């Protein structure tokens, strides 16, 4: 059984920057050695790269955590630690990446070799050579590396095809794909023979070529989750032209025109923009006895629902079995593709704002809350990052952190909230006493 996975939820974590080093130059013939600790190396990014050899998101079924390496620590003699290699994650063409928390689209990866950094590595911490000043020529201060970006992502695969075959189950979509391309989809005389999208390349007699996707059969209610349609309607979104395949022989006992209306209703219910795509009606199974009469009736009903000045969709009678009418259908499809532009898949409101990896100037530097045990809790991106990058093994670094908190106004804010001498203050898992 072929396994097709077109959605996945994964976690990515970029590498932490290497810690800066505290070191001093002590050489026999060099007086006043001074600080000599180097900076840490940059943490690795997590980068998605499009690989046209991949067809599904199956690789993400069992491996859902991707973590880049951390940068090396700084070294003596002022040497920097080595930056970590980026983690390359290969994804198939047509992968949409969303932020799992906000649902916003981060990027849409459609070209072979396209790269996108989904998580940025942290910068390396500074060594004590960076903190030397005339007042403090031999500082015992260094920084820890910056944490790497961590996020949960939703991956969604939407197959890359110019033309999508839609229609009820068993109307002959798979057979049509098999005779116009070299694809070998599973074909059977029962509903939902096709359980995964199949792709094939068509070359017309005039030499034009385009990609066709045979999508699993839709039924009424597919856009609300009935049948297989809800899983695969997304794959129609990238197509520019829809071939609406209808069983004109009515071999299943359904009215061909009612089938036509029902499928269009599902496309509209799933995504209003799908109905904007130009359609060609493919009247299939014309080799069957009642097909010609049914086609006449179909055309009458179709014309009755269009205004006098509206252009009717093109209808091509074909037989996938006898290959009748295929050349004209393919030429018309190629001609329609030539004059149909790409459809914008996402609105601006769907896209994530351009990422900014500094601090938001308008965001508060810290927030104060109180825990059930009466401990004051400090939080906030800027404060927590400052805390993470402080080396608490060195007294001078701790004193520097205290000065930074005071400079941010933390002491005054705590005092204003009623903090008293000796109260416990917590940042993450670290606790200290408030000194008034």
Automatic annotation (TrEMBL):
UniProt keyword terms in alphabetical order: Cytoplasm, GTP-binding, Hydrolase, Magnesium, Metal-binding, Nucleotide-binding
Gene Ontology terms, MF aspect: GTP binding; GTPase activity; magnesium ion binding
Binding sites annotated in the UniProt record for Mg(2+): 174, 194
Pfam assignment, any one: MMR_HSR1
PROSITE patterns: G_OBG, GTP1_OBG, OBG, OCT
Broad class of the protein's primary localization: cytoplasm
Enzyme Commission code: 3.6.5.-
Domain (OCT) ranges: 358-436
Region of interest: Disordered: 127-146
Keyword Lipid biosynthesis listed: no
Residue ranges occupied by any OBG-type G domain in the UniProt entry: 161-338
Coiled coil region boundaries: none
NCBIfam families linked to this entry: Obg_CgtA, Obg_CgtA_exten, PRK12296.1, PRK12297.1, PRK12299.1, small_GTP
Biological role stated in the UniProt entry: An essential GTPase which binds GTP, GDP and possibly (p)ppGpp with moderate affinity, with high nucleotide exchange rates and a fairly low GTP hydrolysis rate. Plays a role in control of the cell cycle, stress response, ribosome biogenesis and in those bacteria that undergo differentiation, in morphogenesis control.
Protein name as annotated: GTPase Obg
Gene transcribed to yield this protein: obg
